[in-house]
Design goal:
The structure holds 3 protein chains of 3 kinds. Chain B is built from 5 helices and 6 strands. By secondary structure, chain B is an alpha/beta fold. Chain B has a single domain, classed as Pyruvate-ferredoxin Oxidoreductase, domain 3. A 6-stranded mixed beta sheet of chain B has the order 2-3-1-4-5-6, covered by helices on one side. Chain C is of the alpha/beta class. Chain C has 2 domains: 245 residues, Thiamin diphosphate (ThDP)-binding fold, Pyr/PP domains (Rossmann fold, 3-Layer(aba) Sandwich), CATH 3.40.50.970; 132 residues, Rossmann fold. Chain C has 13 helices and 16 strands. A 7-stranded mixed beta sheet of chain C has the order 3-2-4-5-7-6-13, with helices on both faces. The longest helix of chain C has 32 residues. Classes of the chains: A alpha+beta, B alpha/beta, C alpha/beta.
Chain lengths: 93, 179, 398
């Protein structure tokens, strides 16, 4: 082997899924009607990408879901589990 | 020898697409070869598959670096993966899209075909799985395989999925022929 | 007579599974591992659908699967297993036992690299890890060859009491589609008789015997010598059986004529190219096709395909390489710390032979971990072959 030949590091640092923005994979997009939403958090719990976070709305005194569309793949599980049908899937491609 | 390279993501039926091409070409009486190139085996990862068609036995097994036909099942790959690597002026490029959003790329080849495969797949199959639809486009724009053989290939390959799925896929790939 | 032997286009794994079904072993046991999975999944599905007669025994690991087929074979029945890479390594102890016990086990190895680092793609690292175990080793370069070698394997194994390993390149052959003829069971029966080992050579309560006994310093050496000599004399028998198999297949309309370009084809090796080549490339497995396509444009380059790697067909090889000046051994494996194993075998063969002149023998390590081998790389190797420089090069850049 030549001197100063670049060595390949076999010990690697863990990757991050944050780098891989999977939003563009969507065919459909979930839209949440916050008026109907009761803040039960089921959507956030069920989302396979952890793309929904619940935030406290102090004015209305309830939790509200915020969907990060950078990562939402449009699987529709949130819309399926919502007990009040506050989430509708819309075409997005 | 025709060399077809297909780009897509894991779970979109990219490997099946190449296999259907080989089956159809074989039914047409040609020699054929099809094989995949997996990256990591997970849904959504970019993958390629390859198909070769010729009139004599195909013996080479390297991947396809100079495709005569390029199929892009998922246009979000453009810009993330070098899908256009190795194309020539003559390469026929079929992209799953409604219009040309990539004229700024000034591609070497002007043989660009845009097929609204997602629309048709959603309408007829109820899912965004475009492989059979885009093969209908392959028939239309290149004639490398016949529609009749492609239908037979779908019936063979999807035999274990049931008659309903086979019927829908055949309807979908015939749709592209009419647009 | 209506023959069911027609050409179809099939996935390599499926072709192997259909062949095994038609050969009808009594027992199949395997543990899934990429890229062998499609073979055993197809066999399991055939069994579940009532299309196959064999007993499919699920195993909890490759060690278990190999042990199951060893045990079944020891009772005097035909068996089958398949594995790759880490699976083959896990069952290594059993692989050595099977050969030492002279059991006619037939196994497909869907060649895959070995960890670490972890890699699921093709190279011959797994085959070479058990190179010295005493199995006959075939290397297939296309689907038809793979199918035919499985049939040949059973005949040889049962005739000579030697296990046979058929190496098929993972993904490249197992997951690709290509035209092939699967000889039907009637055709296979014309070539492969029902397996009935002589009484007293297998486990039977009516006639109790011990297989795999203890051999001390006074006789272990002679048993290994006997195994070695039996392997060496199998070379001629493999040649005869290869001829007989081809004749049988042709008579039954099951002979798939891929472009027959080889000048010499005797079951152990095949040679393509000029009668008096300047350079000969030597390789095994699926890369043969790509090399063959490349050398079409080279008037003085030949290709030697090694189909039987163990026992090593030294005599056949010497006959072929004698007229050349440059020998380039391309292989998908390396004995880390020395050279590629095929190169080492070649060098030993040349040393022991009557070849007087100084052959320029070089080793090119290619395709490791599934790195694609391109016609460009092969052209580079052909250009480098006559250079009298480093005898070992890794060729990886496309």
């Amino acid at each position: 082997m030549k001197k100063n030949k670049k060595r390949i590091e076999l010990v690697v640092k863990p990757g991050t899924s944050l780098k891989n923005k999977t939003g563009p994979w969507r065919t459909e997009k979930p839209l949440t009607d916050l008026e109907i939403c009761i803040g039960c958090s089921l959507c956030a719990k069920v989302c396979p990408d952890s793309a929904i976070t619940m935030k406290q709305n102090l004015k209305k005194s309830k939790l509200e879901p915020h969907t990060d569309y950078n990562y939402c793949k449009g699987c529709g599980l949130c819309a399926q589990v919502c007990p009040v049908k506050a989430i509708k899937m819309k075409k997005d491609y | 020898m025709e060399q077809i390279r297909i780009h897509g993501r894991g779970g979109q039926g990219v490997v099946t697409a190449a296999e259907l091409i080989a089956l159809a070409a074989f039914y047409d009486g040609h020699e054929a070869q099809a094989f995949p190139n997996f990256g990591v085996e997970r849904s959504g990862a970019p993958i390629q598959s390859f198909a070769r068609i010729d009139n004599q036995a195909i013996i080479t097994r390297e991947q396809i670096y100079e495709p005569s036909v390029l199929i892009i099942q998922d246009s979000t790959l453009i810009g993330n993966v070098d899908v256009f690597q190795g194309i020539s002026k003559k390469t026929k490029i079929i992209i799953n899209a409604t219009k040309n959003n990539w004229s700024h790329l000034h591609l070497k080849s002007k043989h660009l075909y845009f097929s609204p495969a997602t629309e048709i797949a959603l309408k007829i199959l109820g899912k965004n799985i475009v492989n059979t639809v885009i093969l209908g486009a392959l028939v239309k724009y290149t004639g490398l395989i016949s529609l009749k053989s492609l239908e037979k290939a779908v019936q063979t390959k999807f035999a274990n999925k049931g008659t309903e799925i086979i019927k829908k896929n055949i309807a979908a790939l015939k749709m592209i022929d009419k647009i | 007579m209506i023959s069911k032997n027609k050409k179809q286009i099939l996935e390599g794994s499926n072709a192997i599974a259909l062949t095994i079904k038609n050969i009808a072993p009594a027992v199949v046991s395997a543990f899934p591992i990429t890229p062998q999975t499609h073979i055993v999944e197809d066999l399991a599905k055939m069994k579940a659908d009532g299309l196959a007669s064999f007993e499919y025994i699920r195993a909890e690991s490759e060690f278990a699967a190999a042990s199951i087929v060893l045990g079944a074979s020891a009772t005097g029945v035909r068996v089958y297993s398949a594995t790759s890479s880490q699976g083959l390594l896990l069952m290594t102890e059993v692989v050595f036992n099977i050969a030492g016990m002279r059991l006619p086990v037939v196994m497909t190895v869907a060649n895959r690299s070995v960890s670490a680092p972890i890699n699921i793609w093709n190279d011959h690292g797994d085959a070479m890890a058990v190179r010295d175990a005493g199995w006959i080793k075939f290397f297939a370069s296309n689907h038809q060859e793979s199918v035919n070698q499985h049939i040949l394997a059973y005949k040889i194994a049962e005739k000579l009491q030697l296990p046979v390993m058929i190496n098929v390149d993972g993904f490249i052959l197992t997951h690709s589609y290509e035209p092939v003829i699967i000889p039907d069971d009637k055709t296979i029966k014309k070539y492969l008789p029902v397996y009935q080992p002589p009484t007293g050579t297998y486990l039977d309560p009516k006639n109790p015997v011990t297989l795999g006994a203890f051999f001390g310093p006074n006789n272990y050496l002679e048993t290994r010598q006997m195994l070695h000599e039996d392997l060496m004399s199998s070379l001629e028998i493999i040649k005869e059986e290869y001829k007989l198999l081809n004749k049988t297949l042709a008579n039954q309309g099951a002979n798939h004529q891929r472009q027959k370009l080889s000048r010499i084809d005797n079951g152990l090796i095949e040679y393509y190219g000029p009668q008096k080549p300047k350079t000969i490339l030597i390789a095994m497995g699926s890369v043969i096709g790509t090399i063959l396509e490349t050398i079409k444009n080279f008037k003085d380059v030949g290709l030697l395909k090694i189909k039987v790697y163990r026992p090593f067909p030294a005599e056949e090889i010497v006959k072929i390489i004698k007229p050349a000046q440059n020998i380039a051994v391309l292989e998908k494996a390396i004995s880390l710390g020395q050279s590629g194993p095929l190169y080492a075998d070649l060098a030993a063969t040349v040393m022991a032979s009557k070849i007087k002149k100084n052959l320029n023998l070089k080793n090119y390590i290619v395709g490791l971990g599934g790195r694609d081998i391109t016609q460009k790389m092969i052209k580079e190797i052909i250009k480098d072959a006559p250079q009298k420089n480093n005898y070992l090069k890794f060729i990886g850049k496309i």
